[in-house]
Amino acid sequence: MSKVHIRARVNGDPVEFLAEQGMTLLDALRDELGLTGAKEGCGSGDCGACSIMVDERLVCSCLMLAPEAEGRRIETIEGMARDGGLHPLQRKFLEHAALQCGFCTPGLLVAAKALLDQNPDPTETETRFWLAGNLCRCTGYDKVIRAVMDAAAELRQAHSA
Amino acid sequence: MSQLQYYAPGSVEDAVKALGAGGRAMSGGTDLLVQLRAGRLPPGPIVDLKNVAGTQGIRQENGGWIIGAATPAALLGEHAGLVAAWPGVVEGAGLIGSTQIQNRASLAGNLCNASPAADSVPALIAARATCIVAGPGGRREVPVQAIVTGVGKTSLGPGEFVLEIRLPPRPPRAADAYLRAIPRTEMDIAVAGAGADIVLDEAGVCQDVRVVLGAVAPTAVIVAGASAALVGFRLDEAALERLDSAAQVVCRPISDKRGTVEYRTRIAGVLARRAVAIAWERAEKRA
C-alpha cells in the first residue's frame, strides 16, 4: 500500500509526513510526528482523550484519517503552553488538582480551551455539557469543572485589565 | 485499518465511480471508522465525500433549505436562519454525540448508518425532508423515510450516495420539535425519540401534523394515527391523550439495557405528546 505525503500546520509550524492511507490522525501525530500528548482511550469517539483542534474545530483525532489533515491547521496540547509559560487552564488544573493519572488531561485541556475561546463566560451547565465527551476515570469531574471556571474568570480579568 | 485505501474525490462523478467499485462512503467518519476498526464491517476502500462539490454547507432555495450531506452537525446549530425555520431538525442533529462528534458527524451519515436510534432521522421525516441521491443513473429525489430499510440497511444501490438533504418551504404558523429520552443527561443512545412537525390555521386549529418515533422499531416510524388524533382540533389534554395512544400503537421496540419494551412504548407516547406540545407552541408564536 502506498503511503501518502501530507502537509499541514501543527501548532503553527509547517509539517510534512508520510502516512498509511487508513492511518488515524491520532496515530500519525503520535508515531510520525512524535506528539504523544493526545491519547487513545477508546478509539471510538467516546472518551475525548485524543481531542485536538482542526481548523479551529474540536475533534477526536482517533476518528479522523491522517490524509484528511492535508492543508489543515492543527492544534494539539503541545502548543498550549507558550514561551515556557503554562496556559491559565493548565495552571488551574494543577492548582485545583484536577487530575490524577493524567491520561484524560490533554484532551480535557484542549476541549476546555476550545470552549473558552468561543465563550469566555460559560455557565457551569454549559461547561459540563461541552466537556461531556471527555471522560475521566479517576479524578471525576468536579475539580475539572472548578478549574475551568476559575481559569475562565482569570482569563476574563486579564482580558479586561 | 491503516492498510485501507483512502480516496477523496472532488466531483460527484468520481465519487460514484469509487463507490461503485466497492468503496465505503464516509463523511464525518464517526460511525464508519469505529465500525471498520471493530471489524463490524468488512474492510474496503474509504471514499471521503467531504470534498465532493455540493456536500458542504447550508443554503436557502425557493423558500426551502438545502443542507450538504456531509455538513457537520455543529454548523446546523450555528446557522441562525436554519434554527429559526427548523428548530426540531436542528435539535435532532444537535443531539448526535459530544462536542467533538458534532464537529464531524453529518445528517447523511446519521441517516445512512441506519441505526434505529439515529437522533436526526425522526425530525427529518416529520419535516418531510428529502434526499438527493447521486448514483450511476444520475440523480433522484427520495423522501428521507425511503432510505433506511432495516437495522444497518439502506435502499441505496451500488455507487449511490446522499448528496443533499432538502427541507421544504414553511407555510405560516408551522413549527417542529424533537425530543429524546436517554438514561443519563448526555452521551448516550436514545431509548426513544419523537419528532413532530405541525401546521396551524389562523384560529390555532391543527391543519396538518406528522409525528415520527425513533428507537422503538427497526427503523424510524411515522405515527399513522397522528392526523386523526390532532387535525381539526386545538391543543388540549384529550388531543394529546389520543396522540399518546396512536404513538404507542406503532411501537415495536426491543428490550435492552436501556429500557424494556413496555418502558420504551410508554415513553414514546410521552415524548410524542411533549414534542407536539413544543411544536404547537412554536407554531402559535409564528402566527
What does this molecule look like?
The complex is a heterodimer of chains A (161) and B (287). Chain A is built from five helices and five strands. Chain A is of the alpha+beta class. Chain A folds into two domains: 4-79, Ubiquitin-like (UB roll); 88-160, [2Fe-2S]-binding domain (DNA polymerase, domain 1). A five-stranded mixed sheet of chain A has the order 2-1-5-3-4, with helices on both faces. The mean pLDDT of chain A is 97. Chain B has two domains: 6-167, Uridine Diphospho-n-acetylenolpyruvylglucosamine Reductase, domain 3, CATH 3.30.465; 174-285, Enolase-like, domain 1 (2-Layer Sandwich), CATH 3.30.390. Helix content of chain B is 33%, strand content 24%. Chain B has eleven helices and 14 strands. In chain B, strands 4-5-10-6-7 form a five-stranded antiparallel sheet. A four-stranded antiparallel sheet of chain B has the order 11-12-13-14. A three-stranded parallel sheet of chain B has the order 1-3-2, with helices on one face. In chain B, helix 10 crosses helix 11. The termini of chain B are far apart. The interface between A and B is medium-sized, with 33 and 29 residues.
Short description:
The complex is a heterodimer of chains A (161) and B (287). Chain A has 161 residues and is an alpha+beta fold.
Using the coordinates shown, work out and report the CATH topology of the largest domain in chain B: Uridine Diphospho-n-acetylenolpyruvylglucosamine Reductase, domain 3
List segments of chain A where confidence is low: pLDDT < 50 over at least 5 consecutive residues. Answer: none
Which word captures the global form of chain B?
globular
Measured as a percent range, the helix fraction of chain A is 25-40%
Mean pLDDT of chain A: 97
Spatial sequence of strands, sheet with the most strands of chain A: 2-1-5-3-4
Uncertain stretches of 5 or more adjacent residues of chain B: none
Radius of gyration of chain A: 16 Å
